[in-house]
Amino acid sequence: MRQHSASFKGNKAVLPAKPCAVCGRPMSWRRAWSRHWAEVKYCSDACRRKKAPRD
To answer: 9 — alpha (psi -120 to 50), left (phi > 0) or beta?
Structure first.
């Protein structure tokens, strides 16, 4: 059986969230992003493609 954080207990409302850099929709923390949550900026591949080009 897996052990979760004591505060999680299946309630996604207690997980960290931040807005997508392109569309502004809130992104909830995902287990796949756990190692690089600080670098996650886009909610989807579509938003990643729409990002502003670097000058």
So the answer is: left
Length of the chain measured in residues: 55
d(CA 36, CA 17): 14
In sequence order, the β-bridge partners of residue 17 are 28
Q: What is the pLDDT of residues 19-45, one digit of tens each?
A: 999 999 999 898 898 899 999 999 999
The answer to whether 8 and 15 are in contact (CB under 8 A) is yes
CA 32 – CA 54 distance, rounded (Å) = 27
Total-model pTM: 0.67
Contacts by 40-45, CB closer than 8 A, 24 or more apart: 44/20
